[in-house]
Task: structure prediction
Amino acid sequence: MHVWRRAGTIGIALYCLVPFYWMVVSSFRRTADIHDTTPLPSPWSLESYEAVFAADMGFGRSLLNSLVVAGVTTAVTLLVGTLAAYALARLSFRGKNVVLALVIAVSMFPGALLIVPLLKLFTAIGWINTYQAMIVPSMSFALPLTIWNLTTFFRQLPYELEQAAMIDGCTPFAAFRRVMLPLAAPGVFTTAILAFIATWNEFIIAVTMVNDQERQTATVRIAQFTGAAKFDTPFGTQMAAGVLVTLPLVLLVLFFQRRIVAGLTAGALK
Amino acid sequence: MLSPTLLVLALVVFYPLVAAMRESFYESGQRLDADGFVVEGEWFAGLANYAGVAQQRFINAALNTTLFTVVTVSLEVVLGMAMALVMRRAFRGRAFLRASILVPWAVPTAVAGLMWKWIFQADGVANALLGTQILWTADGPWAKLAVIVADTWKTAPFVGLLVLAGLQIIPAEVYEAARVDGATPWQTFRRVTLPLVKPALLVAVLFRLMDALRIFDLPYVLVGPRKQSVETLSGLIWDEATRVHYGPASAYGTALFVYIAVIAFVFVKLLGADLLSDVRERRLSGRREGNARVA
Amino acid sequence: MKALHVTAAALALGAGLAACGSSPSPQAPTQERGPITFLGGKFEAESVQKIVDAWNAAHPQEKASVVLLPESADEQRRKLIQNAQTKSDAGDVMLIDAVWTSEFAANRWVEELKLDTTGFLPTTIETAKYRDKLYAMPVFTGTGLLYYRTDLVKQPPKTWAEMKKICDEVLPKQKGMSCYGGQFDKYEGLTVNFSEAVASAGGELLDASGQPQLTSEAAKQAARFLADAFKSGMIPKEAITYKEEEGRVAFQEGKLLFYRNWAYGYEAAQKTDGSSKVAGKFDVAPIPGLNGPGAGTLGGNNLAVSAFSKHKQTARDFVAFMTSAEQIKAFARTSSMPVPRAAIYDDPEMIKKYPYLPALKEGILAAKPRPKAVRYGDVTAAIQESAYAIITGAKPVDQGLSELQTALGPLLK
Result:
């Protein structure tokens, strides 16, 4: 059994990492030998990374923009979504299922069609080239996920805990904040990470709503990287940028991973 | 507590949704005047834009979409479950494993598409490793497989993480009880883990289903637009929209919306009593069930 | 429906009359002047920036700033159309693909231009016109060239039959080498290669009156040539996945004896850093045809003035400035992108820098534009659909062509 488990663990790690490894290797090749299939670059080259950080590309700035957009979207979504999820999980009111159904229905429409009406709307209210023009639409996919995930999460937590807290004199909100939220931490963190990554990688809204290079996010900048010639897909540069865009997320997970798995086992019930 | 949510969704989804649905009944930008200029304005077209729904291209795209959805979501559930179980255990290097499982999800889709295109191209590393000469990115059955491999790689971690969060909420006592009762690992998984993680798993599957039914960028980047073997409904809609056929694009979008809604409805009806039922009722029955099973 | 039209027409008429009644004040030229934004592509950005700097030095009150569009042609097109739909003045001057000119003009997204077109290669000016009126100015151009291996081929072939004959002689001694490649993936490049084949067989996709001519003998010969070449392996099987770059790499790896590509591939294949195995061993020639030299398809980009610009006069002057003889030459000095002015191709300094220029000029003058159509997106999709089916053998030549003939009819009205 242990052998099996070990083999499974290694297998999963390999499955996830090998394609990414290829991406990293490709990013360290020279543009000229980008088509090689050797397991390691020969010679190693920082050409692609230099191209990414060339002054006129504004890649650093775009990473910052991505951080602002994804960070604010995640924070606001969590704030709004946690409250909504708690209400849906714990309070009984008429039309609750309708709300849940509506929330999920918004995840069903093909994104390509939402863009043009939104663009017209944002042009009319002067939101083009602003952060909120990216943040607000991004909430349309972050919110449903947050609400549904956290609603199931809150539902599973024992009711008795809140009751006990309220008997101890807590208001419902204090019960939520002091008792439920810490218990739900792994769910909230997991959801936050999923929402953050989804927003971080968003492309179509960002490329539509923003023309100004100063406000463009990293995924949009990557699409503007160019090769040595007109038809040349700048594969190395894009892979290097892909690695750079992925790394902060991996670090984020390494940093927060304890929070993702805390919860009941280590939490209040012990 | 709900109003901010509803406000946001009304602004960024319901408004464009209504606008797009209205568009599906109108024709615009298709008429030329005598001087060769496009006549401005729009005309009510009735159901004319929906005519394509019955045609071969739409049906083919619907079949592809369904196939991709069924296959990738099934694979992702199995893999995601395995990932969650592995991530949950305490062992050396666990942090590293958790981070590495998240890597595919963290790679931007467009970059992931390019990466797989690179791997799968005619003289790429996939053929080099397999010793084959397969044209993965040309129209044909191999292209389907390439899309499935790439999509599963990209999104299984999503399922894994959501299930992991669900696993965290299972009290250690339950496992303790199962161990004391002498349950085998498989029995523990079937009788304890699976039922208790079901709500989280169902949410993950629901979201993956709806996402997979709208799959677009991977086949588009990896194989290319208008390739029969991998064209999905969203790809078709995108193609129509880029050629400024907003009427048909909106009509197909509405049809896809209805299709997804039906699937979601059926899914929730069949499997999702857990998702919508009242809290108390579910908890009570859940406890009885749990007790009976552990006992 | 009919009643609705009549009402709409009446309303439109009414609106027009009302507008006449309110005596519009003619806009003073000064109001059409001011700072402008140029929406350009990334690749040629550095060389373009130099021209923009020169403009800004001379016009401090009407400075131009450059905003880069996404790299892929599809994304560029989407962005420009979105700007037009929101009537945005985000770009006063825009770089458009030559084949979009008709669509943009017919939709009144771009302004008619009255600029001097002397000194340009005539075929390039044709791509900038819609119904005989000028709506853009060519700024980049190009056509297909035949890359061939000088170490294996003495004289580049003039006809397809010659090419096949050379291959039959050379290939048995070369391991892993195929005869010929082009761009055959299902995208714009396939339209280019297919129309090139038809033109090289002496036919045309559309006749002078704009009617499709796909059932002509020439079209059949061309389609048969491509289908047979795929079937016999003269064109390698993997060429069905080739865009420009995949094929260029194959040629540089020594996997192709002949390759059809744009001029840009010359510089890359000439590199001596080990990336190209054919450096110093290849040259370019005009592409071959059925009975003699072939005719390429014209590529390229035009500059257009947005209909939603607030400073149209400045924008027009900027287009004239950028396409002036002086600036085009300055551009050609720093970029290998082919330009539309004839003088460059006869300039000894330029020929020394880009040895392929004479072959390219010959190619461009013989080149045919792709079909001019308001619904070009639909036209090219239809061509790709049929051409792909024909070359992969999914459909017989005659059937594929007659289906295309039928499909194009309503799209060209």
